[in-house]
Each structure stands twice: as structure tokens, then as C-alpha cells.
Write a structure and sequence with these properties.
The complex is a heterodimer of chains A (about 200) and B (about 240).
Chain A (H helix, E strand, L loop, with lengths): L1 H14 L7 H13 L1 H18 L1 E2 L6 E2 L5 H4 L7 E5 L2 H10 L5 E4 L17 H10 L4 E4 L5 H13 L6 E4 L15 H9 L5
Parallel strand pairs in A: 3-4, 3-5, 5-6
Antiparallel strand pairs in A: 1-2
Helix pairs in contact in A: 1-2
Chain B lengths: L1 E14 L3 E8 L3 E7 L5 H4 L7 E7 L8 E8 L8 H17 L7 H15 L5 H16 L17 E4 L6 E3 H4 L7 E2 L12 H21 L7 H13 L1
Antiparallel strand pairs in B: 1-2, 1-4, 2-3, 4-5, 6-7, 6-8
Helix pairs in contact in B: 2-3, 2-4, 2-7, 3-4, 4-6, 6-7
GO cellular component, one term (chain B): bacterial nucleoid
Organism (chain B): Paenirhodobacter ferrireducens
InterPro entries (chain B): ARFGAP/RecO, DNA_rep/recomb_RecO_N, NA-bd_OB-fold, RecO, RecO_C
Chain lengths: ~200, ~240
């Protein structure tokens, strides 16, 4: 019995390392999995084993794929001549949730950092330049965070692509949908005022 | 332990899922690190950007503990975000402070020079690169590697100073340099307060300060200067 309890404790400890879960919530999740073994735990274990075996980075864009090119890069309809540059796969998923972008992506896997010595090579920026050259790209949309590191990286990419003649654009910054001016920080208000448009 | 101060955010890293580990350059406590509870929230993201001016309260049970900060925004440097060069300057200033200053050692004179520098860079005001160059000269002074540009090390003259000795950091006039001129570092006139500073002159000045900053780095653990500084110099060189 002690052995079984140890294995369950080990499972709880592993679950507690996931984002959003602490030791107590991991314990509740494991208990729920054990109680719903056939409906939940076994399919989950099978799905996890399959993804663990097959998941890899898409060799073209850096998205997660289950072998070879990811679905977006493999889809000929997404070859619109536009590449959207994002920091990581979570940002790519966020863009896809918006259903607003129909082109392909390039996942950097990080940002240029002033202090951590993360340089252009670590981020695959030379690979992006090569893609822009070979894929007849009309526009590169740099969709990076509105942070100092995000915008430093965006400017670096814009500079690196200057010679290619490709249009490089960035996302707008300003008041979010549902945002109230009273609660916005000074920087966002400044950016919104600069990006004002006629009504 | 408990103190209140104001300062500038130098860096922010995630700490666990909800907190942030920040490094600040403060008026009275120098470069200081601490945890901001809830610092990973969207509400705090703008306040904790490098270069932001903040009011701080630091608390810890013992003085040598990391401690926690409570942070209130004072001034944003968001104006630099859209300006490629200003953003490079902002990053370089933060990176140089984090690189060069020891932790928890106050540098009031340097702090007094740094706050206005962040303000002009944050507003992307023209001419800030020369302010940055002068700030690096002051940083060298604080580190004990200050340059003596008052008079020629060879002749004692105050006229026609054109070089700096790479060993002593003292100015050398054209007459005093003689055949040694190729071995000396060029001294841009803008560091003597003469004439307007071109991008080329500022870049030359940064190569001069870079020589002595490199020496400081070599004598304090052989670390390379931050890449952010090199990116600023490259950006200035492209402007020229």
C-alpha cells in the first residue's frame, strides 16, 4: 500500500509543477483523475504518451508539430506572402484565436535581452531572414510584446530586413477593447494618442 | 528592515507564477534587487518596464535577505518604445548600470546624472546620445576609471588636445603625441565641450569610453560589456 501511495504522491508532485497548479489543486486533480479512470485518466495518459512521442518543433516556423511541418506551414492556402513574427507558441495560438491573420508564422522562441546575453542567433533571426528571401514575402508583421525587450527585438528585426525590401510592420498600441481611460497607464495613453485616427 | 526610496527599474524577471524579481537603481540604496508580489500581473507590467521611474518600499526580516518591494509608478519611458535609437539607449543605460555597479552601494552623484538621462531618452529628445556619452564618462569616474581631459599629460598644455592615453586615461595634445599618435585613442572634440556633436563623434567617444569600460570589466571578472551597449553603438554608427 505504501508503494501505491508513493506513486500517487509522485504524480501529485509532478502535477504541482504545472502552471496554475499548486500542491493542493494538484492533489484535487489527481483524485479526480483516479475517480474517473476510464473516462479521463486513461485517455489523458494515452494522449500525453502520443504527444510526448511525436511532438517536435516545425522545421520551418518553430510552431509545435506532430512530425514534419506544422498544419499552418503545410497548408498551401496560408502562403499569402505574409509572415507574422511572434515570441513563442502561446502567442501564435493567441493570434490564431483571433482568426484575423491568414498567413504563416515565425516563432522566435524568446526576445533579445540586454542582461541575459540572448542574441539574434539564439532567436533564429538569421533563419527568418532566409525565409523572407526564399518565400517571396510581401510583408513581415512583427507581433511582439509592447515591452522594452519586445520592441528592441522588433526594431532589430526591422533593421535586419531593411535590405530585403520587404514591408515590415508592427502591431498597433493603444486602448484595449473594453478598456477605460482612467485605468490605463501613462505609456498606453501616450501610445494611443499618437495612433489616433479620424472618426 | 524597511525603507522607502525612489529609483529606476533596470530589469524584471518572472519569479514563480505571479511575482517578479526586479532590479532597481535607487537614490539612496544603489542597485538593489527584490521581489514584487503580483509583479507578473498585467496591471503591473507597464510599471515594471526597464527605465520606468518608481517609488519603492523595501521590506525584509533581515538586511541581507532579498526582501520584497512595493512599487508605485512615477514616470513612464514609453516614449522611447517607438524610437529605435532611443530604445537602444534606454536598454544600454539599464544594462550598463546592472553590469557595472555593485549591489547595495549608493552612488548619489551618478543617480543624479542618470535620472535626467532617462528622462531625455524616454522622451526621445534630440541630442541625447551626447548626454549618454557624458553619462558614461561619469560612470567611469564612479568606477575609479575616470579620464583626465583637463590638460596634456606630456606638455601640460590645455590647447589642441586630440588624444587619450589608453594606459593612463589622460589627454594628450597633438604636439605631445608626436610619433606615438597612432597608438593613442582619438579624443572627440565633443568631450571637450567644443562644437556640436555629430553621430560619428559620439560613436568615437563611445569607443573611447568602451576601451576603459573593457578594462574595468577585465579587471573585475573578465565579463564582456553588455550586448545592449554594442547594439546602441551599431545603431549610432548606422545613423552616421
Amino acid at each position: 500500500m505504501a508503494g501505491a501511495q508513493d506513486e500517487i504522491e509522485a504524480l501529485i508532485a509532478l502535477m504541482a509543477r504545472l502552471p496554475g497548479l499548486g500542491p493542493r489543486s494538484a492533489r484535487r486533480a489527481v483524485l479526480q483523475l483516479i475517480r474517473r479512470r476510464t473516462q479521463l485518466m486513461e485517455p489523458l495518459a494515452r494522449a500525453m504518451a502520443h504527444v510526448a512521442e511525436t511532438a517536435q518543433d516545425c522545421p520551418m516556423c518553430g510552431n509545435i508539430s506532430l512530425g514534419g511541418l506544422c498544419e499552418i506551414c503545410a497548408d498551401p492556402a496560408r502562403a499569402t506572402g505574409e509572415i507574422c513574427v511572434v515570441e513563442d507558441v502561446a502567442d501564435l495560438w493567441a493570434m490564431e484565436r483571433g482568426h484575423a491573420f491568414k498567413g504563416r508564422y515565425h516563432v522566435l522562441g524568446g526576445l533579445l535581452s540586454a542582461l541575459d546575453a540572448v542574441g539574434p542567433e539564439e532567436l533564429g533571426i538569421p533563419r527568418l531572414i532566409e525565409r523572407v528571401r526564399t518565400e517571396a514575402t510581401r510583408e513581415v508583421i512583427v507581433a511582439l510584446n509592447a515591452t522594452v525587450e519586445g520592441q528592441t527585438t522588433a526594431h532589430y528585426i526591422a533593421e535586419a530586413l531593411e535590405e530585403s525590401g520587404t514591408a515590415v510592420t508592427g502591431l498597433a498600441q493603444g486602448v484595449p477593447i473594453g478598456g477605460e481611460l482612467d485605468y490605463l497607464d501613462d505609456g498606453t495613453i501616450q501610445a494611443a494618442l499618437r495612433a489616433r485616427h479620424s472618426l | 528592515m524597511d525603507w522607502q526610496d525612489h529609483g529606476t527599474i533596470l530589469s524584471t524577471r518572472p519569479q514563480g507564477e505571479t511575482s517578479a524579481l526586479i532590479e532597481v537603481f535607487t537614490a539612496g540604496h544603489g542597485r538593489h534587487a527584490g521581489v514584487v508580489r503580483g509583479g507578473a500581473s498585467r496591471k503591473m507590467a507597464a510599471t515594471l518596464q526597464p527605465g520606468s521611474s518608481v517609488a519603492l518600499r523595501w521590506r525584509a526580516r533581515l538586511e541581507d535577505q532579498l526582501g520584497t518591494f512595493t512599487v508605485e509608478p512615477l514616470a513612464s519611458r514609453a516614449g522611447a518604445m517607438r524610437d529605435r535609437l532611443a530604445l537602444a539607449g534606454l536598454s544600454a543605460t539599464c544594462a550598463m548600470l546592472a553590469f557595472a555597479l555593485p549591489e547595495r552601494a549608493p552612488h548619489p552623484a551618478l543617480f543624479a546624472a542618470t535620472e535626467p538621462l532617462f528622462a531625455v531618452i524616454g522622451d526621445a529628445m534630440p541630442g541625447w546620445p551626447l548626454d549618454y556619452l557624458r553619462w558614461e564618462m561619469q560612470l567611469l569616474d564612479e568606477l575609479g576609471y575616470g579620464l583626465d581631459l583637463g590638460r596634456c599629460a606630456v606638455t601640460g598644455s590645455r590647447e589642441d588636445l586630440a588624444f587619450v592615453s589608453p594606459r593612463s586615461g589622460r589627454a594628450v595634445s597633438r604636439a605631445g603625441a608626436g610619433d606615438w599618435a597612432p597608438r593613442l585613442l582619438p579624443l572627440p572634440a565633443c568631450l571637450l565641450g567644443q562644437g556640436p556633436a555629430s553621430w560619428v563623434e559620439v560613436t568615437e567617444g563611445l569607443r573611447l569610453t568602451g576601451h576603459f569600460l573593457d578594462r574595468f570589466a577585465a579587471e573585475h571578472g573578465s565579463r564582456a560589456l553588455p550586448a545592449a551597449r554594442a547594439r546602441l553603438i551599431a545603431a549610432l554608427a548606422r545613423q552616421g
